[in-house]
Amino acid sequence: MPIRRRGKKFLVTVELGLDEHGVRRRKCVTCPTEREAKRIEAELRAEVARGEYRAPASITFGEFLRDWLASARPRVSPTTWERYRGMVEARIAPRLGALPLAELSPLHLSRFYDSLREEAAHPLHGQGRRLSASTVRKYQMLLHAALSDAVRWQLLSRNPAEAVRPDREVRKEVRWLTPEEQLRLLKAAEGRRIYLPIVLALATGMRRGEILGLKWEDIDFARSRLSIRRALQWAEGRWLLGEGKTAGSRRVVNPPESLVSLLAQYRRQQQALRADMSEWHDHGFVFCDEHGEPLHPAMLRSAWRHVVERAGLSGVRFHDLRHTHATELLRAGVHPKIVAERLGHSSVTMTLDRYSHAVPDLQSEAAEKTDELLRWLLGDTGSNL
For a designed S-S bond to 147, which of 97, 159, 203, 343 qualifies (C-beta 3.0 to 4.6 A apart)? Predict the structure, then answer.
């Protein structure tokens, strides 16, 4: 049957032949554009011709998740996709994968979430690291997103995850380092390869992947400008240079002059090392190994663990240096809009929400400044209440 227009949308109808009772079967799909309708029609006809088309009722949840992961791959970062795949393979597919997709109910999901909560409260032997409350919520968000796509693909009429109330988001308390702790950390890192990445994170708020992806061409020594254009990730057994975590991740920051001097000194040291090496692969990275190859995140993690233990700061994460940078700026009275831009946040609201611990200081400063004006205004009228 030809593609038909239905209101502002287009209806695709493909004949699937007769079922075992001799009843004619059809597959109908509604598309937002005619171009999309033609693409869907061609795909369905090709599947039918090859004998590969399967009615939604015969698809298991595990089979659907395999196709969903394939469709999600171009839309998310490699590390996010690997996390999705790990979640599917570790717990979702083994516990829910055999169910027919059409029979997956809110009760199945509710029981699955209960099992995750039980595992978080009482970790089973052989299950690896203990699940956190935030990880349980990530499973809920993943299943909701996957099943929403199942509805969009017209494999389900409604999303069973909509009927299950997700856990409340548990936001971890932001950890930042006091000036004394920062000094202890830098003293413990002095003379080690990780020293300058720590300084860079404290002075700019850059993420670990952004620091590893930094190239010399990104540093404008003459104008003291640093362009953050990419993040280096190790995923699927290879190096991947991504655009960054958010739309605002590509940004330009002005580093302190003392940091620019350190980077210039480090560049001279690297050039001297390069001159002495018989084999050097010039990829242009600021932080690299003895042969110019990108610095592996595992090497940075190992060095970080050693340094925080020496500094007596066990439990502090490298990402907490980013939190420290933001906190110090807000407490110094830097406008939140500027802080958001330096961090690459998508909005000022996100910055203020995440670093609300620094807001009371801003509120106190605002009250003090308002008090000066109010005292002047009330000077001649305050006694006439």
Answer: 159
